Amino acid sequence: MANYIGSIDQGTTSTRFCVFDAAGRIVSAAQKEHKQIYPQAGWVEHDPEEIWQATQDVIAMALEQGKLRASDLAAIGITNQRETTVLWNRKTGKAVANALVWQDTRVDEYVAELSHDGGMDRFRAKTGLPLSTYFSSLKIRWLLDRLPAVREQAEAGDVIFGNIDTFLTWHLTGGANGGLHITDVTNASRTQLMDLDTLSWDKELLDAFRIPPAVLPRIRSSGEVYGTVKNSAASGTVIAGILGDQQAALVGQTCFKSGEAKNTYGTGCFLLMNTGERSVRSRCGLVTTVGYKFGEQPAHYALEGSIAITGALVQWVRDNLGLIRTSPEIEALAQTVEDNGGVYFVPAFSGLYAPYWKHDARGVIAGLTRYVNKGHIARAVLEATAFQTREVVEAMEKDSGIALDVLRVDGGMVDNALLMQFQADILDRPVVRPLVKETTALGAAYAAGLAVNFYKSTDDLRARWAADQTWKPGLNEAKRAQMYRLWKKAVTRSFEWVE
Fold first, then answer.
1. First-residue to last-residue Cα distance in the chain
2. What's the average model confidence in pLDDT over 358-379?
3. Contact present, 215 and 196 (Cβ < 8 Å)
4. Which terminal residue of the chain has fewer beta carbons within 10 Å of its beta carbon, N or C?
5. Which residues of 470-483 are buried (b: 16+ CB within 10 A; e: fewer)?
């Protein structure tokens, strides 16, 4: 009997396969990192073949670790880094180039070109998104423009596009031998090529971005039986859930009611608020996205604040500066000082995302004096994540008209108690960490489980959510206001650095 749900969690830095029991507890998991490729400043790439191999490896490792067989899995869900763009040959399965990662900024000239006629919000009415280097549309165009032979093949339908969810699903379900070329509505909503209201690819958008319709996958819901795995240790198991990683975390946190929100602290930070069956167009620098769509039920939408660099800043301090040997050491280093020493670190390494959307911004460290030491730098690094989150929360409250009572949090950085306490302090409201912290993988498992009746309903899932720890604010209002004002001042120093 199938007593478990599998979840492929393909992220920006690694790929995991988690096996959950009916209570939402991980019974087995395996993880592999993949290379981050930086050909030049602002360019970020991944090797799709490496990610596909890692996916096969972690599935096999997790099943072996748990002494499980494919037949023990009721279904598999997939969650993925969004916007990251792959083009591959339908006949061979080989990528025509490395994947262009969501952080990649090489298409900034296209942003300037397209915004010249209609501004940055030229396509927001249809897509909910501003023009930005972030989304898939311009990344597809860049690859097609730079590889003329590939454009011809794409127009003929021999080269196809997908975000990582599509690439993995195609390979898992047979690849060149009948693999499914599909995506779900949440990932499609991040391409800037789908109409948010009709949930279908839009000809006007495709023409504007010069993308042939033949490259695009079929759009499906986030939870339904798509097909059967043929190429991995999980062969014979159905794939029944697909969600972009942040939407998966929204589902994993069981934010099924309008006004409920979560923040995921990973490579970047992503705050999503469920707005129900209503798609709210932002006036405050947020994006509108599909939150999830289960089977034939109506789509639920979300407002999202995307922050490019949070956990990645800790990795940068580790790898580029060598101030720490492992990422968790940042907390101990930050605890060697009482405050940030007047230092503010704005990590606009690839521009600023929400709520500013300034692709020409670059990182700055402000407030340096001879008093400052590496402990102050470490503290400023952690505080940068909390300050950016507050900016997004304020924008979200203005757009939605809903005041957040608490902030549900998840992701790798939520084990950092110093950061979580400062987040509560600077927000002036409680921050709550759930009992199951792996909410992204869990959300994909929930979507797949609902599709095969492993779980009865969203109410069934809500009953399983439980808090692990709550941090309450303890900073006086004058200090909070002063620190936030100086942060805002530092942010303005990062603007218009790229000429």
1. 62
2. 95
3. no
4. C
5. ebebebeeeebeeb
Which residue bears the tokens 């001879």? 370
d(CA 50, CA 434): 32
- Give the pLDDT confidence of 170-218 residue by residue, as tens digits: 999 999 999 999 999 999 999 999 999 999 999 999 999 999 999 999 9
Distance CA 401, CA 171 (A): 43
- The C-alpha atoms of residue 53 and residue 59 are separated, in whole angstroms, by 10
Q: Cβ–Cβ contacts within 10 Å for residue 42, how many?
A: 19
CA distance 71 to 201: 36
DSSP 3-state of 280:
coil
What distances in angstroms separate CA 460 from CA 23, 25, 235, 455, one per listed residue? Answer: 10, 15, 29, 7
Which letter does DSSP use for residue 279 in this model?
A: -
Place of tokens 């790898």: 319
Whole-angstrom Cα distance, residue 348 to residue 363? 4
DSSP string, 61-105: HHHHHTT--GGGEEEEEEEE-SS-BEEEETTT--BSSPEEPTT--
- What secondary structure letter does DSSP report for 415? G
pLDDT digit string, tens, across residues 75-96: 999 999 999 999 999 999 999 9
- Which residues, other chains included, contact 112 with Cβ-Cβ below 8 Å and sequence gap of 6+? none
Which structure tokens are listed for 271? 């705050």
Residue 249 exposed, middle or buried by CB count within 10 Å (0-12, 13-18, 19+): buried
Predicted pLDDT of residue 116? 85
Burial class (CB in 10 A: 0-12, 13-18, 19+), 71: exposed
Structure tokens given for 115: 């915004």
Closest CA relative to residue 266, chosen from 162, 164, 447, 419: 419
**Token pair of 104, please?**
């990649």
